[in-house]
Specification:
This protein is mostly helical and 127 residues long. 45% of the residues lie in helices and 10% in strands. A three-stranded parallel sheet has the order 1-3-2, covered by helices on one side. β2, α4 and β3 form a beta-alpha-beta unit. The radius of gyration is 20 Å and the shape is extended. It starts with a helix and ends with a helix.
Length: 127
Amino acid sequence: MTNSVSGIKAFMKAVANAKPWLKDPLAVRKKWDEEEYNLADHGSGQDLCFAIMWDDGVVVPHPPIKRSLEITKAALEKAGHKGSFRIPPLLICAHLVVVVDWKPIKHRLLGDVTVRSCVFNCACLLT
């Protein structure tokens, strides 16, 4: 879409201001909110949590993708975001910014159910 954060912001703001819900009833009715963009309710970006899912147990990313995730994690931790493998419930509310390694749960099952559902729905359409 763009090569800068300001370009992404301009694009997303233009899309939201076009009121797509007037043309598509399934689109979420959400006007652009500068305070939300600036994360006013989240300490202006100080109360964030980053989760990195290294793979979903089914598909493993190519080495360049994995390397970029490792670089991103290192940059977040270098910027002061603390890393942790588990977040105790008390820390979630303690306004800490953390970087966690996300472990997927039952992704293969989710994929199987999704495929079966699609096959069933397609078969119903053909009859």
